[in-house]
Q: What sequence folds into this?
């Protein structure tokens, strides 16, 4: 994590009042979610609250893990992400093989394989090292009191919106249609094939001794991997699609742009039925937006309960510039690559879509570039 000087730390006597305020805030959003789309959205809000809490209490993520892997060849840093991907693959297989549950049609996170995915993942990898968090990382860090993430998320939205205006050009570049192994081989054989590959990578990652590091997380990483896999499965069952993060950023950017005079009719991407409906509809009717907000609230609640919440803001000039560049790169990259470490990497691979593996391979050189640039913004001791 980036060094952030605490600006406001809650006194113990004030925690009960803050907890009551948090409960009222969550109740308000729950009421609004129920009013927007009924019980299903209320359940999805509950799932996202738990996701935020798990992320804060386990600190499982990709930003630091991938940086340690590419810069120090600390292969053990990949074990937690690989466990999350493998467990999510196992959780998705029975649902995707059925095709529906409780009358809800289910679909995985499949996407085309092409230049745009590779370029987008590369840009995202560089951006998350400068921004200090991936798609989910920016949200749970904000909930934990990292004020710098407000700037990262704002520019993330701007980058996603800018990319949406150019999606036609990116989609004209070389590529092939989505290849989903579950549809080609069958869901259980495809899941088994992937699990064997992930297990082999997990075993290989443990051959090299781990770099000794101080751990601040309240819960072990394996708990986070298991919990997030189960919660992603719940998202698939309730929403009909896996957990995603960054679509909401593009939507938020577009909604702001319309208020500034932008005409959606000028862009083919925003004329598609789903995008057009989301842009004209209530924000809380959008599943991804609802869950992103819920994730922040869940992280806030967990940080308050653990006595770890402190508002902080890194006002160094370099940190501010890195936040802007990181957000723009992540936003642009995620949109053209069909997602981030959650939507494209975890949910994509767990859906047996080969674009997820391409995303994984392409993000690594981007991580290397972003990590090499960090000292220019944060000083030579930046980790």
A:
């Amino acid at each position: 994590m980036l060094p952030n000087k605490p600006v406001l730390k809650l006194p113990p006597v004030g925690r009960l009042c803050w907890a009551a305020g948090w409960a009222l805030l969550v109740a308000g959003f729950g009421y609004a979610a129920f009013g927007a789309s009924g019980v299903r959205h209320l359940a999805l809000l509950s799932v996202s609250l738990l996701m935020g809490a798990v992320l804060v209490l386990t600190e499982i993520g990709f930003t630091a893990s991938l940086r340690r892997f590419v810069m120090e060849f600390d292969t053990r840093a990949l074990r937690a992400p690989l466990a999350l991907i493998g467990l999510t693959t196992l959780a998705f297989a029975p649902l995707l093989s059925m095709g529906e549950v409780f009358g809800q049609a289910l679909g995985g996170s499949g996407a085309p394989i092409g230049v745009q995915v590779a370029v987008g993942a590369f840009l995202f990898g560089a951006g998350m090292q400068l921004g200090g968090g991936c798609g989910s990382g920016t949200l749970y860090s904000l909930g934990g009191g990292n004020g710098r993430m407000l700037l990262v998320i704002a520019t993330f939205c701007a980058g996603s919106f800018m990319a949406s205006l150019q999606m036609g050009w990116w989609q004209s570049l070389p590529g092939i249609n989505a290849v989903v192994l579950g549809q080609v081989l069958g869901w259980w054989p495809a899941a088994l094939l992937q699990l064997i590959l992930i297990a082999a990578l997990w075993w290989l990652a443990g051959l090299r001794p781990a770099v000794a590091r101080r751990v601040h997380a309240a819960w072990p990483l394996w708990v986070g991997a298991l919990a997030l896999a189960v919660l992603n499965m719940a998202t698939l069952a309730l929403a009909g699609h896996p957990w995603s993060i960054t679509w909401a950023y593009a939507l938020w950017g577009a909604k702001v742009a319309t208020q500034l005079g932008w005409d959606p009719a000028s862009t083919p991407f925003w004329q598609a039925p789903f995008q057009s409906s989301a842009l004209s509809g209530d924000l809380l009717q959008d599943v991804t937006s609802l869950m992103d907000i819920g994730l922040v609230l869940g992280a806030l609640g967990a940080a308050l309960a653990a006595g770890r919440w402190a508002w902080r803001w890194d006002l160094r000039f370099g940190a501010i510039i890195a936040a802007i560049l990181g957000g723009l790169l992540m936003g642009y990259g995620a949109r053209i690559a069909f997602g981030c470490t959650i939507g494209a990497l975890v949910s994509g691979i767990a859906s047996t879509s080969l674009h997820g593996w391409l995303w994984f391979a392409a993000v690594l050189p981007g991580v290397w570039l972003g990590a090499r640039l960090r000292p220019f913004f944060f000083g030579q001791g930046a980790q």
